[in-house]
Each structure stands twice: as C-alpha cells, then as structure tokens.
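Supplementary Methods, section 5.1.

A reviewer requested that the exact input to the structure prediction be made available. We therefore reproduce it here, unchanged from the version used in the analyses.
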Amino acid sequence: MTFSFDGRPLKALPGETIAAALAANGIAAIRRFDVGGSEDESWRGLYCGMGACYDCVLTVDGRAGQRACLTKITGGEVVRSSQPAGTRADHLAPLADKPQDAPRPEVTVDILVVGAGPAGMAAALAAGRRGATVAVLDERPEPGGQYDKPLAPSLRAERPTDRQFRHGARLLARLAAAGITPLQGALVWGAIRPDEVLALIDGRAVLYRPRKLILATGAYERPYPIPGWTLPGVMTTGAAQTLSRAYGVSPGRRVVVAGNGPLNLQLAADLVARGITVAGVVEAAARPSFAALPSLAKAMLAAPDLMAEGLKYYAILAKSGVAIDWGHAAIAAKGDGQVSAVTLAPLGAGGRPDAAKAYTIDADALCLGYGFVASTEIARALGCQTAFDPRHLGTPCVATSDVGETSIPGVYAVGDGAFVAGARVAECMGTIAGAHAASRLGLARPLPDCGRARRGVTRARHFQHALQNLFAAPPADLSAIPDEAILCRCEGLTFGRIRTEIDAGWDSLGTLKRRTRLGMGRCQARYCAATAARLIEARTGRRREIEGFAPRLPVKPFPAAALAREKPEWGGHQRAGSPNLARAPSAAPFGKKDVEVAVIGGGVVGVCLAFEFARAGRDVLLIERDDINLQASGANAGSLHVQLLSFDFGSKAEAGGGPAAAALPLGPFAVTLWQEIAQTCGGDFEIRVTGGLMVAETPAGMAFLEAKAKVERRYGIAAEILGRAELRALAPALSEDLIGAEYVAQEGKINPLTATYRTFEAAKAAGGRAERGTNVTAIERSGGCWRLTTSRGTIRAGIVINAAGPWAREIGAMVGLDLPVYSAPLQMITTERAPPLMTQLVAHADRHLSLKQLSTGGLLIGGAWPARYAEHQRLNTTVLDSLEGNLWVAQRVVPQIAGLNVLRSWAGMNVNIDGAPILGEAPGRSGFYNCVTSNGYTLAPAVARLTRELVITGSTSLDVSPYLISRFDGSRR
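The structure derived from this sequence is encoded token-by-token as follows.
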C-alpha cells in the first residue's frame, strides 16, 4: 500500500499502523512539539506504542489528533505532522459522525467487559459460558492487549508463531466459539455511573448499560524521566516490542535496551534474533548472586515454562556476544532532533547513578522499560477505593476482593488494570471475576467452579513474587535528575520548574497543576503524576499523595463531535451540596493568633482582599480550609464578563434581572483593576481584552440582544449590535448560520491558574499572612473583637470578612446571619490544542454558552450547564446531558470544534445569589463584613476594593447600596 507523510510518498504493508509504517521507512521524528500555542523546533516520535501518551498524534486526511500507534493504514492516507490551519481552505475535519436527531444509541447487556487483553477475554469467556450476555470493548485495532497481541496480517503467513501468539489465538478462538466478538477500536470515554459507560463505536457515541461491569483496562509502562527522554527514538520497551514482534519493524539500527525486569531481556533477544544490532542491555537490578538461588528455585517451581523461556533469552544474548550490564541505568539520551547517543552509568547506594563512571555509546534508539502502572482511571472516576502499589515511583491500584469486586458492588477490576501482576494472574482473575459476576445475576449454568483458576492465581503470584526478588532494583533517585530534564512530557515542564514551585510552598499536586499546567496535557498525567508526587515527598518529607489528580472524564481524549447532542436548556441553577475536602498539606497547630483583619476564604475574592489590605498597610490574615485557589476559583473558566449573561436578563433572570443589572458598573471597574494588579505584580496574567460577542441565530435572538444592550448602555456599558457581515469580518471561524451579535469591547479573559497565585504572592510580599488547611468552626464576639475557633488554633480579629464564596452561608450562620448564598455545581470542558480560531469571548443569546480560546490553543467551553455533587466521592462531577448539550451549542457556534477531541471535563462551584454581590457590614454585627459575589472571577478585585474602602474609610469608589444585605427580607435573625 502507499500513503504520504508531509507530502512524501511512502510504502506500507496491509494491517500496519502508521507508527509501524513510518518506522519501517526510517522516520522517527513525526510531530512538532507545540507548547503554549506556538510551534517549537523540537520533535516527538513514538513513545508508549499503546495509545496512552499521545506523543505520536498526527493529522490523517484532515482529522487532527490521530494516534499513529493505533491508526491502521488502509491505503491512500494523507498524513501530516502538523494540525490543519483552521481556515476554510484547511479546516479541521470532524473526528466522528454527527449525532442524529434520534435518541442516543443504548445497549443493555448483562456484563460489559472493558479491555480485551488476557484478563478481559478470560472474564468474558467465563461469564458467557455461564449464560450471561457479554459485550467486550477494546481500544486497540486487534484483541490480545500488550501480552497476547497478534502478528500483523502481513506477517502471519511467513513468520512462525511462538507461545504467546498461540496463547492469544486460543483465547480468541474460545471467545468466538462462545459467540463473543470483541469490538475493536472502541474508545471508552469512562463510566458516568456503573450502568452508564460511554464508548465511541464506529464513529458514534454509544451508551452501554450493563448489569455488571468488569474493568480489564490493562496497564501502561512506568515513566523513567531522564534528560532527552522526549527525543524521537526514545520509546518504551513495550512500544519497541510491538514494532518488532507484531509488525516485524526494528525500532532502530543500533538499539540500547535499558530498565528493569525480564521484558527488556525478551525484547533484546528478539531484536538480536532478527539480526538487529543491540548496542547495550542495561539492567538496574544487581547481578544475581548465590543469595538469589531460593527465588530462582521458587520461580522455576511456579512456572517452569516461563523460566525456560527466560533462560532462552539469556542464551540468545550470550551467543550473540551481547552482555548485560547489571546494576546500571541509562541516565541521558542525546541527539539533535533524534537520539544519537545514550549515556549509561553504574548505580551506587540508594540507586544514585555514579556520574564519575558514566560512559556514552552511539545509538539511534533507546528502549526504556521499568515495569507498568495500572490503568485505574475509569475505576477512580466511579469512586472505587484504591490502594498503594509501592513499586518504582509508587502509584495507585484498585482495591478488590478475592473475586475481583471493587468497593462499588457490581463493578470488578481485574488484571493489570487493577494491580500489575502479569498475564497469568490477569487471566485467572478474569476467569474468577467473570464467573462471579454471572453468578450474581442468577444466570450461572452448572459448570465447574473456578478452583483451577484460583490455583493458577496462587502459582502465578508465587512466580511474580520470586521474579520481583530476582529483579529487585533500587527506586529511581529523582534527586539525580538535572533541572533541565523534562518532567511533564505534554506541557514541556522541567524538573527545575516543579522543584522551584515546591520549594516556594506550592507543595500539593492540585496546586502544582493549577500553577503550572502539570498533568493537563493529552496523556492526562499518566506520565508525570507519580513522579511529581514523589518529588513533593522527597522535598517536603510529607507522606506521598498516592491518589494523584482528581479523576476527570473522559479518561482519554474523546471526539467532541460524538458528544454534541441537543438538550433542553435548564431553568435555573441547581443548588446542591458542597464538597468539604481537605486536600491542603496538613500543618501543625498554631495556638493563638491576633490579627487586625481576618479574611475567611482563600479563593480569588479572599486573595484580592488580602492584597488590598496588605497594600494598605493593614495586618491581614487569609484563612483557608483547604488550599489557595482550590475550589470554585481554581475551577473557574477565567472569563472577564462585562455584559449581562443571557440568563441574567429577561425571563430567565433571577429577581427579574434587577440585581444583575445593578451590578453592571462593577464589570469595567474590575477589568481595569485586574490590569492594575497585573502591572503591580509584574507578571503576565494573560489578560486579553479582546471583546465579547453574544451571538444570535434567529430574529428573536437579535431582538433579545437589542433589548439587553439598551439596558446595559444605561449603566455605561458600550454595547454594539453587529449584523451578519460585521460578525463574519470580526470572527470568520464562527458559523455562517449566525445572523448577528452584540459586541462589548471591554470583555476578555484572564488565566485563573496564574492570576490568583500571583496576586496572593504580592499580598504576602506586602506583609499579608495566610494559613492553609485551617477550617473555621466557630465565630463569636469576645471582648470587643471576634474570636475564631479553627481546626488549628484560635484567632482574635478586630475585623472579620466572610469571603467564603459558596460556603459563605455556612460562615454567616456562625454569627447568626442568614445569607441567601447557595452553591451550584457547574461543568466545564476543554479541548486539545487547536489552531487559532477566535480571539473574542463568545456567548449565545438563546442558549447557555461561554466559549474562548486559551493562550495554549485549547478551547474552554462552559456556560453554566449544571453538574452534580457525588456524595460518595465528595466531589462535584460532570453530567452527560450537560456535556452533550454544551458541546452541541458550542459546535453550532464554532463548527470546527467537531474536529477536536475533548481533553477533559470538570465540575466547578458557582456562587448563586440574586445576580448582585453581598457587600458591607452585617447589621448588628460590628466588624463582621460580607464580600460574596456571583461572577466572582471577574468582579473579585472590584468587590475587594470596595470592601477595603468601606472598612478603612467608610466611603467607596462606586455606590454599594444595591449590594447591601438589607435588600433581602429576613436578613436579620
């Protein structure tokens, strides 16, 4: 077959992936690495080879974000290393079929198995044999997973199969005999609930509703970051093994295999047997000595066939003259655009490389293999309990019973997707879980019990334990990795950047994510979270954060086009419970503190208050229950709204829209203050006042905009109505179906992941203080001041300011105040990086939408679609209907969103009042002030400035009478 890559015609064999075909043509550098929306001169190549890292994404026939390692060539493909330009002549082609007006396809099944590796196939077979209807979804082009993957079709006639190939073929044949056919190329979004599993099947989203769910999601290879590990030609051992075993393609001409464990020896032996030069085999474990004989004997007794196979690898390497350097590691890869040399060094005490004895060898491929990490993403999104796998960097695994059932009844996790223990444990546990799930449905046929599988688990675990002893190696010494080495592959973040953040006190994973974008890329933290967690542990001495980042859907990037489906517009904020998390680092009690001004709440409003009072020379203490910028503010989309949102005007508006209109003067004032704060802080808040568009599709929508603009102009907002031609000239990427818009030049966007932290740092520099992880539990008047009882001590303050956002009602109740402030969880969506499509902040006249393009290139999509509070997880979580409806509106406005993947969705917390802030001193409570607002990120500096003026001078820059609590009935109790 033929295809083209960047205009160059190339040949391929039937059944090859694009990655295999490019490697066969000697092409390792396949994609320019883009950071921050700009094109870098560095290149990336194949890395994981199993669709987890997304480093090999390419554009195929106009469809961006296609993984070269999973995309099969059928002939004639036009493959590009770059994205389309996003213009009419070079647009983003849709990634999936557009959903029809018909209801979303749903499949009801007794048992759904996610994954068709050894565990998944065995589970499906056991359940099917016991009478259950079974569906198997698998992301790869062929079943078998990493262990039982088959030979490419083009090689099956000419290459003899070995034990692994034959084993996989037998499993698949048994499935076929049982009438079960795995659906390949099925990308599972994740599980919204145990009986709601969304997948992409043949280009469209299908919802599966199983009675029992078995997760056999497998594992991906553990990261081993070293300088140069992002160079093309550096890949995991599994990626190289897939190229070599499945496709008959060499990862390079001179190959170094380095890491820990027998998989590396298998790869090296396979390459040598095929006549490929193996320049070095490097094993982190020490050379086995007589002390290893007991482990060797146990392994031989538990699995003599596997041990014989291992000895065969040794024999092949020895016969070819390839020595194994025990107790060594690869410490750097070097090259200009592609790896050309590898530096190796012996490991000293504690696993630290001995740099004085380092040496460099020429190589055009480096294969790194340090074991595997369980793919727990779907289980964690459901709220399944996890445990700790201490090996290597230390990662979460899924806690299960002896039949594979998780903490959520009816949800099973088996194989390496639960806990990495090898293919034989996986297959046996799959059999046990499948049989148990079927029996719980009352469908079990009178078949033999799983005694053989249970005995197999015992033997296989004995073998794995012995193997771990034989290959026991010291954990990676992260302190030996230089600052310039990349830690987060997707975002290009270095060890030095993350170390600096940790040393400055930003020492939790959640804070690092918000401050640096750590873990926000396409791989969704698979290759950086564990490393960063261990780095925090090493530099702070605190217990490691095992859970990693909060689970988000989709578990892998998912086509936005497949999700866009029209939904009814909601009729108001859905008030809900609020997560009461404690994710801040634990801190010691502080006893007693005296302070002039105590601000409760470390979100953006509280931080701006701390900034205002500290800059005014006042002694201010910011008190935060969790961590700074963690909850509502940290999950904010960063829009700078000046005009009324569509649901703040007309029939949808709360309190008739009067309070929201009264708050209009605060918008321009706040945007100006944000610009002043950024200048004061000396940093880029990514404030871009590029104007805001509220678009309309119908004459009724235009009439709505004209009426809204009339009200806004009365409050000083420069609102302009644009026709179709004017709108098209201003924003050509917007849909041609839009007939006009309202334009407000004062609107824009800000980066909430930067602005809050920089403002906080400026407040501290001006003398402000802060206490994180400090929960206020009581407030009472005592001796002419306020006494705050907290989880860490007592605080006496002359002035207390309630800036707790969605939790302001809870704080107000402590002083007998009934604040009409509610929380309403709302969801947001972000896409992968896109070409420049728009500069404005975009909203919709008739529908809920907030849309903008970030400086990174990703599109951020919101608009107050509701989320839900999951009590068992104590998290706000997204709702499928809201995601679908939000994306449907977004794609009607910007059609090329259909050519992008959704990278993640999340639920933030909105402050729901009546459309206006609550400011000022509480009646009858001298020295107790409220500073709470909707549209909090935009208005934070404005309400903070007004509150500071009220406290210090009693007069304000703007009239605050519309924002006093006295406007509510029953404000005093």
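The chain has five domains: 2-80, 106-220+373-445, 224-369, 478-552, 591-967. These observations are discussed further in the main text.
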